Amino acid sequence: MQDYFLKGLLGRASQRGLFSTSFINIRDFSNSKHRKVDDFPYSDHQGMILKVDVLARAISSIDQYAEYRLLYMCPKGPVLSQESINRYSQESKGLIIIPGYYEGIDERLFDLFTIERVSLGNFILSSGELPALVIAEAVLRQIPDVVGNPESVGEDSLLSGLLEYPQYSNPRNYQGLEVPEVLVNGNHKLIETWRRKASIKHTLFQKPSLLAQLEITDSDKKIIVHALEGDPL
User: Fold this and answer.
1) Which residues are catalytic?
2) Cα separation values, 7 from 1, 15, 29, 94, 184, Å
3) CA distances for 194 relative to 25, 150, 205, angstroms
4) Which sign, positive or negative, has the C-alpha torsion 186, 187, 188, 190?
5) Fewer CB atoms inside 10 A, N or C side of the chain?
6) pLDDT tens across 180-222, in order?
7) Could you give the C-alpha distances from 150 to 61, 109, 144, 145, in angstroms and in order?
C-alpha cells in the first residue's frame, strides 16, 4: 500500500511535504510465537477475525491516537460520500484508517475506541485495503496544492453539487463524431453556459437525487424543463 503514495501526483505532493503517511504492521503487536493476529470467532469456526488485543495495542502505539479520527472499512457503515470526504479533510490531526481482513474484527474494539464505520457500497472485497486507499486519495486531493490547479478540485463532479460536464479532446472528428462546436469557438461565456447545461442534464438523468440538495436558480429550472422535453444542448 505504501508504494501507492510514492508515485504520480500524490508522490510529488508527499515529497514536497504537503502530507505524510505511515503504516503499521499489526503483526508487530502480536504476543504469540508466530506473530498471529487472527483467530476463529467464538461459537462459529467459520472464517477468521482480527484479534482485539493486537489491534488495541497497534492503535495505542500511535502518539496521541485519541486526537485522530478512526475509520474502519465495513459494510455496516454509511456509504462514503463527498460530504464525508470534506469532513475528513478538515481533521486537524489526521486519520487512522483500519482496513478489515478475513471476516472482520473483534467487536470489542468498538467498545474500546471511538471508531467510525465506512462503506464503499453493498459489495464484497477480500480486504479493506482498496477502500482505505480510496478514502486516503479522496481526502488528500482536498489538501491545498496537492492537485496542481486548485480550480480542478473545485470543478470536480459532486464538489459543485452536480455531475461534471462531458470532456473532449483531439481529434476533433472521430468516425463522424464531432466535438461540440461551442467548445472550439473560443467564446468563454457560451462555453460556461454549455457546461452548466450539460452538468445539469447529466445530473438530472443519472443522479437526480443530487439536484434535490442543490440551490436551483430560475435559469437552472428552465434547463431542467428543456431537458425533460428532450431538447438538445
Assistant:
1) 75, 103, 141, 156
2) 12, 10, 29, 21, 34
3) 50, 22, 17
4) negative
5) N
6) 999 999 899 999 999 999 999 999 999 888 888 778 888 888 8
7) 36, 39, 7, 7
Pick the closest to residue 214 from 145, 138, 163 (CA basis): 163
Residues 6+ apart with CB under 8 A from 139: 85, 88, 89, 95
DSSP state string for 104-139: -B-TTHHHHS-EEEEBS-S---SBSHHHHHHHHHHH
Task: Decide which of 3.40.50.12780, 3.30.70.20, 3.40.1280.10, 1.10.10.60 is the CATH code for 2-140.
Answer: 3.40.1280.10
Alpha-carbon torsion, ordered 181, 183, 184, 188, to 10 deg: 120
Phi, psi of 40 (to 5 degrees): -70, 145
* Per-residue model confidence as pLDDT tens digits over 128-157: 899 999 999 999 999 989 986 655 555 554
User: Given phi > 0 = left and psi -120 to 50 = alpha, else beta, which region is 207?
Assistant: beta
Give me the CATH code for the 173-228 domain, please. Answer: 1.10.1270.20
